[in-house]
Amino acid sequence: MSRMLSTVLAAASMLALAACSGKPAADAAAPATAATAAPLRGPADFGPPQGEPIHAALTSPPNVPPPIHRNYPAKVIVELEVIEKEMPISEGVSYTYWTFGGTVPGSFIRVRQGDTVEFHLKNSPTSKMPHNIDLHGVTGPGGGAASSFTAPGHESQFTFKALNAGIYVYHCATAPVGMHVANGMYGLILVEPPEGLPKVDHEYYVMQGDFYTTGKYREKGHQPFDMDKAIDEKPTYVLFNGHEGALTGDHALTAKVGESVRLFVGNGGPNLVSSFHVIGEIFDRVQQEGGLHPQENVQTTLIPSGGAAIVEFHTDVPGSYVLVDHSIFRAFNKGAMGILKVDGPENEAIYSGKEVDSVYLGDRAEPNLKAVSVAAKAHAAGTLSKDEQIAAGKQLFTGTCSVCHQANGEGLPGVFPPLAKSDYVAKLVKEDKNKLIAVPLHGLTGKVTVNGKEYDSVMPPMTQLTDDEIANLLTFVLNSWDNPGGQVSKDDVAKVRAQPPPAQATEH
Amino acid sequence: MRRCLALAILGLLLAGPTVAADHARPDYRPLPGGRFASVIPADGKAAPAVLRPFRLRTEPVTNAEFLAFVQRHPEWRRDRVPSVFADFRYLSHWATPDKLGTGALPHQPVTQVSWFAAQAYCESEHARLPTWYEWEYAAAADATRADARSDPAWRERVLSWYSRPSSEALPPVGGAPDVHGVRDLNGLVWEWVEDFNAMMTSADSREQDGADKLKFCGAGAITMEQKENYATLMRVAMLSSLKATDTTANLGFRCARTD
User: Fold this and answer.
1) Would an 8 Å CB–CB cutoff place A155 in contact with chain B?
2) Which of A6, A13, A85 faces B216 most closely, judged by CB atoms?
3) B50 Cβ under 8 Å from any chain A Cβ
4) How many C-alpha atoms does A349 have within 13 Å on its Cβ side?
5) How do residues A222-258 score in pLDDT, each as one tens digit?
6) Taking CB atoms and an 8 Å cutoff, what residues of chain B touch A174?
7) Cβ neighbours of residue B20 under 8 Å, at least 6 residues apart?
C-alpha cells in the first residue's frame, strides 16, 4: 500500500483540487464601517457574525433572491444539492446534466459582504459521480474545492467569510473539471456590498455555457457528452441558462417601459468567452467581473469563462430585445439567444417603429412597382378594384414567382409546374379557394399532377409576402393565361394564414 | 474486522460444501500481468506498475450471489451489520434484509455495498478485491487487445457510460467478453478495489500550505495531457471520494485471486 501513497497523493490531490484559484491574502483587511457610499469596495472583515444564523434563500434561474436589507454581518447557511438528471437541451433532444440545485446554471446565492457562510454541499444518493464546489468568492485554497469533495449520498460542510463584494462564479472542480463544467456545474454567488446595490425594478440571472454532444445541433434523441469536441473547443450548443429556449417564448424575461433592469450575467464556459450583447439596448452601466468601477454606455461586454458581470440598463421603447453572444453564429446556429420582452406605450420620439414597408426587389423590378403602391393606397382607401389588384399582382409576380413559374406562367417542364391554363389551379379554386391561398402561404412539397404531367418538387412558403400582396398575386394568376378568373381579398388571405398548414398529402 | 472475518470463515467452514454447491462456481480468468502504464505512476513520475499474474472474476458479483452470501453469513444482513462496516444505505434497495424484490433483480450487479462487505464476500470465494493496478490493467482491454486505451472507441465507450443518467435501472451482468474473457469492467458499475483508500489521503494533503499546490495542479495538467486517461481518472476520482463504509447506487465489485 505504501508504495502507492506518494504517487496517489499527487494524483488524487490533482483530482479534487484541480481548481487552482489563487486568492489574494485578506488578513490585512482592516475592519471597516458601512458608512461610505462607494458602490463596491475592497476586501473587508466586519467582525464576527451577529444574531441568529440565517438560511439563505436560493433561487432558480432566471430569478434572483431579493436584496438583503441587513446592517450587520450574519452567519448564513447555504444548502446546495448536486443532482445529476436528464433534461431537454433542445426540442426533442435530451442530455444528462450535472447540476447544483437541479438547474443549469445552479441556484443563485446572495449574501452580504462580511457574512460568514456555512456551506453545505450535498451530493444526491442517486448521483453516479463525486462532486465538489469552487466558489470564486471564497478566499482559501481551491475556493472550497479542497473541503467539499463529496461522494454520492454524502454531505460536506465548510465555512468561509465573504470578504470581497462582487458577483462570482462557482463551479465543480472534480476531475475531469472540464466535463463537470460542460455538464452544467456552475452558477453565481452575489456578495452584496454592505449598503446594498442601487434599487432597480428587475433583477435577472443569466448564465452562458457551451455544450458538447456527439450528435449535431438539434439532432434528436439522447445525446451523450463528446470529450473530443470539448477538447477541440468546438461546441454543439452555446446556451443561456442551459437549455435552448430557456429565455424565449413563455420563458422570456419581462419588463415594462420606463423600468430599470439589472442582469447578473455569468459565463460558466467551459471554453468560450462571451461577447454579451442585448440587441436594441445600450448598457447604462457594466461592472465587469463585478468590479468596483463601472463602465458606462456599453454596447457589448466581454464575459470570460469563469467570470461574470453586472449589467444595468433602462427600457424606453416596447418590443422584444434579444440577448445574444455577439460571436453571432453562436446565437443563430448554436442557441445563444434570449428575449427580454418590454411592454408599454410606444415612444416615437425615441424610436418610430417601421415608417415605410415598401417592397424592394432590386434593379429588375424597381421601376415597375408603381402599380403595387397604387393598389396599396387603394386598399387603404377602400377603393381597391379587381383591375388594380391584377396590375399589382403582375408586378409582384415578376419579382417573386417568375423565377420558377416563368414570366409567361408556363413553368419549366418536369421541374416547375405551369400556372398558365393550369387544371391544378382550376381544381383548387373549384374545391376550395382557401386551398389555393394556402399554396404561397405554406408552400407545397411533393407530387402534384398538372395538365397531365407529374411534378415532384419543393416550393418554400412565401411568408415574406403580406396578405394583400398574396391577394394581388393570386388575383393576377386567376385572371391570366386562360385561368378560370375570380378574386382573392386580403381578408381571405389573413384567414388562411391564421390556420395551421394543411397536411400536404391531401393536395394530390 | 478480524472477528468478523473469523466468523465469516468459520461460517463458511461450518456451512460446508453443501451450501456452496448450490451455486455455480464463479468463473475466474487468468491475466498475465507484467509492466503496465497506469494513470497513477508507480514512482510518482512515470514508472510503470509491475503486476504479477493474477486471476480476475469474469463478472461483477450479482444481487443473487450476494443474497446467497448474506443468507450464509447473516451477520452481513443489512439489519445486522455493524454501522462501522456499512453505512445506512447498505443494501437499501433490497425489499427486505433477505429478499431482493423488484428494486434489485437477481442478475443485476449488486450495489449499495461497502468495502468491508465486498471484501468479506470475496473472502468467501477464497479471493480478495483486486488492487487498483490490477483493475486498471484488466479494464484497459477490449475484445481483441490487452491495452486498447489509445483507441478513441475504447475511450468513448467508457465516457458514454458516464453520460448515461443513473436514474435508469442497471442492466444485468454479462456484457461481451474482452480479450481475457472478462466482462463488464467498463460500462456497468463502479467497482471497489482493495487499495481504494490510498486515494483518500488527498483530503488532508490539500489542506497543507500553498507550497505544494502548484505541484499538484502541474501534475494534473501533465496527466491530463494523455486524453485517453480522462476516462480512467474519473474512476480514480470516484474511488478517492469514498470511505470504506460508503455505499452508492452505482458501486459494486468483483474479486481477484493471486495466481
Assistant:
1) no
2) A13
3) no
4) 1
5) 999 998 899 999 999 999 999 998 998 889 999 999 9
6) 237
7) B12
Question: Closest Cα of chain A to B166: distance in Å?
Answer: 6
First and final C-alpha spacing in chain A: 77
Q: Which three cell numbers stand for residue A181?
A: 463544467
Residue A22 neighbours by CB under 8 Å, 6+ apart? none
Cα separation, B187 vs B182, whole angstroms:
13
Q: What is the DSSP letter of A120?
A: E
- C-beta of residue A496 within 8 angstroms of C-beta of residue A473: no
Task: Give the one of A17, A126, A224 whose C-beta lies nearest to B167's C-beta.
Answer: A126
Give the nearest chain A residue to B194 (CA atoms): A1
Distance between CA A77 and CA A70 in Å, rounded? 15
ipTM: 0.70
Contacts of A285 (CB under 8 A, 6+ apart): A294, A295, A296, A298, A310, A311, A312, A313
Helix (H) or strand (E) holding B156: helix B152-163
Q: Does A458 touch chain B (CB under 8 A)?
A: no
3-state secondary structure of A261: strand
Of A129, A120, A118, nearest to A83 by C-alpha is: A129
Q: What's the pTM?
A: 0.68
Grid cell 398574396 in the structure block, residue: A470
Instruction: State whether residue B74 sits within 8 Å of chain A by CB.
Output: no
